[in-house]
């Protein structure tokens, strides 16, 4: 059986680091307890192991095909979808009244971690559907909700978000898809979208596209963008399918990874007969879509973390059982070879993977905890902090998850890049995540250009407060030295933020933002370092008195990984800070003709 997640690690994160049991104090989650949480996690693990993991490689080898009329996926994808839907996981976070479980985001994300580790391309259909349903639930009319949500929750319909266009990419303010108002209040949609994941498939009866378009005579730019529900098939009031809605599949795109997820080019309104239903107010489409986009960004972070985590576990298992070479001080050629995990450089590569993968998972679960704090109690500070760190939640795992997979391949040596082992697929799958839902550069501009200064930088202050609390709790012999190193680098981050803020207020916007990617790197590494310090602290508190070897090893592993990240990775931010504080113009002043 493939190990998808280290169970002890996941339970430690949920119940010791992020205090999942305390969520039951909120009225929304009062009917839950640790028993129900664990039951959901057990169900997720079982479905992931039995119905998702077994066809991960098969879906990669036999990607969806389009014969000009219909798309065909392998049968196992449909079976996995049905298991996921029948378990209620498509609507796990919805209200009891809507057929949901009112499950905390923290527990739901932990459950999703199993699926992302098992088979990211198949579960992508489920995650996109849940996110699309959440958006309709938040902003749709009562009629729209009744028409689509029950069928999305039970798995009859799937969902997508259709934003990107061939000549637009991430610059959504330039999109050209048009919406024309009809006498009955609906809109005629016409345009083309591409890179639409799950845009067509043979898994569900219908597909509910959430489409960004510009209403006729609306202004250019983002203020002219509206959001529409555009189903593949129209729907009768009783839920049965009506006529085709003139949404045509122009073709499938063939990516290096996530091959089991259809990536589509869609034509809306080829026959001028594509009906869309406006969500909310005209001109507010991008604001509404950001709910799904931000949810997707956290989801991309989780996916990148878990693909990196899966690779780490695979390479760890290999290193424990692969004999090769001898300890360098052993000169006896007759001595038995040792497992490669005994070699220091292999330990380095495994430590790096552990620090990236487990740190990234902790980051995603921290974001989930903030979502729960805000949604269950209306605690606004949690929403402000979540908004600040969302670019980091998306970008750090999607940058360092592939690095973890690269190291995992290296641990296996020549075997690592063969298809007989899953690591080359892990790497290919994970390499898409730096581009999914906004590149590193886009996230960095969002962070340094906007998020950092919102609410008078309250989000940053809230983050610092949490870090300082951890510092206060680690003032003892076993972690004090690490805490002091962390504090020194935290001071650098704070000073750099202040300097860049002054530079922006002085009107030097181009210089201040020229190296925004470096600031995002700084924030990512300081947050992950903080989480490692917190994890080490909680591990010591929980296990330092245990007489069980497994507990002692777990605790020592957490402390050692924290030491690795804080000593080896975190100091890199000093170089980033130097370039940022010098307003280095190397990249800014490079000219196109000089390449």
Task: Walk me through the structure.
Helices cover 55% and strands 11% of the residues. It is of the alpha+beta class. The chain folds into 3 domains: 147 residues, Acyl-CoA dehydrogenase/oxidase, N-terminal domain (Butyryl-Coa Dehydrogenase, subunit A, domain 1, Orthogonal Bundle); 128 residues, Butyryl-CoA Dehydrogenase, subunit A, domain 2 (Beta Barrel), CATH 2.40.110; 152 residues. The strands form 3 sheets. The chain has a 5-stranded mixed barrel with strand order 4-5-12-7-6. A two-stranded antiparallel sheet has the order 1-2. It has a two-stranded antiparallel ribbon with strand order 8-9. It is globular and about 80 Å long. The model has no long low-confidence stretch (mean pLDDT 96).
Descriptive key words:
18 helices, alpha+beta, globular, 12 strands, 595 residues, Butyryl-Coa Dehydrogenase, subunit A, domain 1, two-stranded antiparallel sheet, five-stranded mixed beta barrel, 3 domains, Butyryl-CoA Dehydrogenase, subunit A, domain 2
Question: Approximately how much helix is present in the residues?
Answer: 40-55%
Shape: globular
What distance lies between the first and last C-alpha atoms, to the nearest angstrom?
Answer: 51 Å
Stretches with pLDDT under 50, minimum 5 residues: none
Quaternary assembly: single chain
| Secondary structure category | alpha+beta
Could you describe the largest sheet, including whether it forms a barrel? 5 strands, mixed, barrel
Tally the structural domains.
3
The radius of gyration is 25 Å
Give the strand order of the largest sheet, numbering strands 1, 2, ... along the chain.
4-5-12-7-6
- Proportion of residues in β-strands: 5-15%
